[in-house]
Amino acid sequence: MLPIDQTTHERVTAALSGRAAERARAGWVAFRELEMPSERLEQWRYVHPGIDLGAFGLPDRAGRPHPAVLGGPWSASAVNVDGRTVAAQDGDGVEVAALATQSDQGPTVAIADRFEAMHEAFSSDGVLVTVPRGAAVADPVLIDLQAVTPDSASAPRIRIVAAASSQVAVVVHERSPDGMPALVVPRFEIEVDNGARVHLIVIQQWGDETAAVARHHYVAGRDATVGLAEAGLGGRFSRLHLSVDLIGDGSSADIVGAYFGDHSQTLDYRYFLRHAARGTTSEMFLKGAVAGQSRSVFSGLIRIEREGQKTSAHQTNRNLVLSDGADAHSVPNLEILADDVRCGHGSAVGPLDEEQRYYLMSRGLDRMRADRLQVKGFFEEALVRFPVLRFEPVLRAALMAKYAGVTA
After folding, report:
1. For residue 111, which of 215, 19, 226 has the smallest C-alpha distance?
2. What is the reported pLDDT for 16?
3. Exposure string (b/e) for 135-145, b if CB count within 10 Å is 16 or more?
């Protein structure tokens, strides 16, 4: 296991070239200068990650991958273990490759905190998905993102580049064993050219001792669509910081999420959508529940630039608090610089509805079944929005299994 220090950074950088090496060197400069984030910072308000970088090291090789658990069919696939891509298979109309073997490493990025700097300084591999112009990929692409080595830190990078008028859905399954301490700092970059459509589905099932700090950045060109559907189920601490830049006229973003925290989990969502072109649209819809001593945070900002006339943008976040010790924060925001827009936001945090419980019990259900039906119905509105319909029953079962664990 290699320590998270300058010697390891130099070892990582020595194996890189071109833009990858530039990004790593810039990341190390920022990593040295930045302190660990805390809830004193606006972008980390309400949470403290409680992560000691000294407790983790970078494995010098990938561990043994676990067998895939999500059923296909898949157009193409890749397996990334402990930050290294150990398998990649192309498919009809889509190219999938280990990022370490590719020249397309993306642009040098702005670094906002020490975790982002850590990713840049120590990331050596990932997965590149490339969709050629006009290709319509029939079945989803699967990326199996695993952490399997105890006390390991990994920084996988996922790049999805969709050429003009192409279409693809990419499913990322994030997972690690329960009871195994690990730190994962992934970065997702999606570039969608004019008229293309990319939907990313993330099924987050990190183990109960895994801390994950994910950064997502998407850019959409003219008449392009980018979507994220995330199911947040696992992790001791799991953060998803998303930023979307709608820079082409008529571009759109579709963001949906369903998450459930129990025990002492923290699920942290920071979503920022920027409308920087005419006639853009966005829909953000998240539903979550917390129980035990868990905590969830949603902070969403829709910013409409002066050139974002004729924008339509909405964000909704609703939360169920199922235990006295659980806590949910929901902070939607709008920042509007244009004068011809349609925008709205909604936020709710509260317990199960007493009137609905009374109605269901009056129809013959006992209290336990009535509450279970309420929880199931609460998540249904989010699950039916997931773009790959075959995962709907899988995710419904996972969410309700968490609820059953709370009430057992």
Report:
1. 215
2. 93
3. bebebbbbbbb
Is 382 inside any structural domain? no
User: Structure tokens of 357?
Assistant: 């419980």
Within a domain: 339? no
CA distances from 356 to 96, 291, 353, 366 (A): 48, 20, 5, 13
Query: What do you get for the CA distance between the two ends of the chain, in Å?
Result: 40
- Residue 384 carries which DSSP code? T
Using CB atoms within 10 Å of the CB of residue 356, give its burial: 0 to 12 exposed, 13 to 18 middle, 19+ buried.
Answer: middle
Domain that holds residue 228: 2-248
Backbone dihedral angles phi then psi of residue 287, each to the nearest 5 degrees = -130, 135
Residue 65 preceded by cis peptide, ω within 30? no
**Confidence at residue 250, expressed as pLDDT on a 0 to 100 scale:** 98
Between CA 211 and CA 68 the distance in angstroms is: 22
Answer positive or negative: Cα dihedral of 367, 369, 373, 375. Answer: positive
* 212/267 Cα distance (integer angstroms): 10
Q: Are 155 and 183 in contact (CB under 8 A)?
A: no
Q: Is residue 158 a contact partner of residue 189, using CB atoms and an 8 Å limit?
A: yes
- Tens digits of residue pLDDT in 301-315: 999 999 999 999 999
Is 156 within a domain?
A: yes
152 conformational bin, left if phi > 0, alpha if psi -120 to 50, beta if neither: beta
Residue pair 172/203 in contact by the 8 Å Cβ criterion: yes
**Count of all residues that appear for the chain in the document:** 408
Pinpoint the alpha helices (H) of 197-260: none
pTM of the model: 0.96
- Count of structural domains within the chain: 1
Q: Is residue 342 part of a domain?
A: no
Locate 343 and state its tokens.
């925008």
Q: Is 206 left (phi over 0), alpha (psi -120 to 50) or beta?
A: beta
Three-state DSSP state, 367: helix
The token pair at 103 is: 């020249």
Alpha-carbon distance of 162 to 220, in angstroms, equals: 10
Indicate the DSSP class of residue 53.
G
**For 255-271, how does the pLDDT look when each residue is reduced to its tens digit (9 = 90+)?**
999 999 999 999 999 99
